[in-house]
Every structure is written in C-alpha cells, then in structure tokens.
Amino acid sequence: MSEDAIRLVTIGRIIRRRWRLLTILAVVGALVGYGTSLLFPPRYTTSASVLLPGAWEERELLTQAEIATSSVVVDRAAATLGWTGVSGSELRDRVSAKAADGNIIKISGTADTPERAQQLTDQMVQQFVTFAARILGDNTDPEAAARPEALRQMVVQTSRRITELADAADPGQTVEGVQARTELEKLRTALQEAMKKLDEADPATNKANMVVMGPAARPTGEAPPTRMQLIVAGALLFFLFAVIGHLAAARASRRLRTEPEIAAALGSVLLGTVDVPGEGPARGPRGRGPRAWIRWLLGVDTRWDLPTPQPSGGEVGRQSRYRQVCARLRDRLPAPRRLLVVVPDGDEIARRAAGQLVAEADSDPSPTSSSRGYPMLRVVEVSVSRPLVPDRGTESGALVVLSAGSWTAGELAGIAEACADGRHEVVGIVVAGTVRARPTRTAGRPPHHATPAFAVGDDARGGSV
C-alpha cells in the first residue's frame, strides 16, 4: 500500500473482499463480550436527593457530599440493612454522592437487584440526614451554645419593658405621646425581625430543615455496561482491530507495485503490460487439505489489496497488447530463438497471461517472412522460496511474466539469480493485470483465445520445476 491517505474505498475493499473473516471475528468478539458479561453480574443503580435549605457555599456542599459517603454513614447503613456477607467496606464501592445545583446532595446506590439498589439508596439517605443533623447539632462550647438562648431571653424582657413603657406613656392624644408609642412599636418590630434572622442563620435550624426529596425509585434497567453493550462492544472492537490489522499489514508490505521497481529488482527492461479477464470468486478451495479449506472459508486465499479491475477495452485491445510485447521481444533478439517464460509459482494472473502470450507467439502468421517471426516460448513455473530454472538447453534466455503487487524485491532478485545460474539471460519483463471482461455477445461461443491460452499454458508447462 502506498503512503497516500487511507480512503473509504480502501476500507470498502477490505470489507467486500474479507467479509467472511470480518464476520467470523465479529462473532468471536461478540462471544468474548458475552463471556465478559458472565464474569460481571448485572448491576442496578438508583438515586435519591436531599435538599439543604439556607445559604450554602460550594465548599460546604462538597463537604456534605463527602460526609454522605463516609465510612460512618456506610457502616451504619450496612448494619441496618444486615445483608449476609456484605460489609461496609464492600458497600463503600457501591455508593456515591455529588453536589448538584440548588443545594441538593444526590446519593446513588448500586446493587445486584433492583430491590436491593432501592433499599441501599434509601438507607444511605436516612443515615446521612441523621448523621449530618447530629454533626450540625453538636456544639462542644457550652458558652457559645448558651449565648443565643440568653439573647432570646433579653429580647423577650425588652419586649415586655417596651409594652410597659407604651402603657405608661401619656394616655392622652398629645403629639409627644403618640410619637413615643410609635417609636416603641418600631423598636419592638426591629427586635423581632433581628431575632428571626438570627434563628434562620442558626446551623441547628438548617440541620432540622434537611428535606429528603422522595424515596429512591426502583430501577427498571441494568446499569451500564449492560450485557448487550458488552456483546456489541466486543463485536465492534474485533471488527475494527481486524480492519486496522489489514491496513497496517498492507502499509508494512514490501511487495513491489510499480513497474520501475520491478524492472530494477530483476535487472532487465520492461517490455509492456498485458491484461487478462478477471475471474469471479472461487467456488471452492485452491488446493487440498484442511488448511486450504480454512483459507477458503475465511476468504484469505485471495488478495484484498489489489486494485479493483478496470473495465476492459475489448478483446481487440487486449490482443494488441500481446502482439506489441511479442514484437518488442523479437526486436530485442538478434536472431530467432527459443525462450523460457518464467512465472512465479502461485501467480495465477501471470500464468494466464503467459499462456496467452505463448498462444500469440505460436499464432505468428509469417514466421519465415522478413520480420523473422516471433520467438518460440515455453512456460515454466518457479518457486519463489527456492527458485530453480532449467539449465540452458534448447532455450537460451528467459522472459519473466508476473503481476504487480505480489512479490518483494528479494523474491524477484532470487528469480533473477536462478535464471543466471541456469545460464539464461533475462531478456525482458512483462507485467500482467486484470480487467473486467465484457459479456460475450453470443452465448456458448467463448473468445477464440480462451482455449489456446489455457491449453498452451498447461501443455507448455512440461518443463516446470
């Protein structure tokens, strides 16, 4: 794969050509997600809210949220619930509290059943309100606790004294008497309002006014991640990892894809490119044995990173390409001679192209004319792992036919060395590709080149190694 940005067409090609493998891996991922859900039993979560009246600073609300999940509150809730085998330390991981807007503390509880989740949350709320009220009500300074009560007594006495003064004022309707009584009433009202504000600012009053905003609702669904979420996540992760693995393998591939790279690896010149009609998907495994069946079942017996075949320019255009290659090959040879057509073993596209090339060379209408005719060709398939080319005999020279994007530089260099060991000069290179063939116009009448290409390729392979 080139260093170009990965496009959607590449991912679409992976899905289209590897859908069997991707489907199997997605199923495996779903099974892994299901197995994971069995290790983690379902959980149910519910919550309840506690309102804190009065003016509270943000840090004070955070302190109350910490108190709600403190060990004292959780241990008291665990002791009250009395669940077998469940201690306060275990419950501490199942409860949480957070300060919300509007002086609200939201307490949440999680358990393995909806009923237990509801019971846990309600008990946590109750224990929190009780414990917080106790904290706010406790006062370790007796003098400070007695001061508000003494102030109230003084206000009561002052109010009584104001009443006495008002009664003792001039009972007549003089201006001075009316003004005195009015001032005394204003003073009484101011004292009452001050005392009311003092009561509202008293933490003990806020403590007593904590409001539980209803019991916790019984949960109707599992808390995430649910079993279905784990199954879907497992399938999706395995699918994505498979696609990413294909892209990474293609990016790290060292197979040669351009014609100049192929020519440089073989140390010869490119005579041209030829096309063969693309074949449909294989209806059975290529080879025998369980490994071949597995590869066919997974769909990995065909390359996915090859580009989509382009529409064919027609039979005439394909035949013209083969004639041009034969003509260039003839022009490079000083005299007519026999050549080996070397095809890497396993390169089906190259094998078909070599068979068609042999058929075209055999169909030269004028081998004795001034054009000297096309050279005689014989196909041999060479293993890229242990390349071995027949020694020079009746053939003197080699023509390498291969498809682009299938072999590395080291593999092609090995084929070139094998040709040199067999005393064959690599006189040229032909790169083969696939095209989408047009449907035949007459059913039952295949193109005239189809049978000779395969027949000649198979018969001429008598010297294969």
From TrEMBL:
Subcellular localization(s) per the UniProt record: Cell membrane
Domain of life: Bacteria
The entry's keywords: Cell membrane, Membrane, Transmembrane, Transmembrane helix
Protein name: Polysaccharide biosynthesis protein
Recorded family membership: Belongs to the CpsC/CapA family.
Polysaccharide chain length determinant N-terminal domain location: 6-63
Membrane topology term: Multi-pass membrane protein
Acetylation as UniProt keyword: no
Region of interest: Disordered: 439-465
Main localization category: membrane
Record field: transmembrane: 21-40, 228-249
InterPro entries listed in its UniProt record: Bact_polysacc_biosynth/exp, LPS_length_determ_N
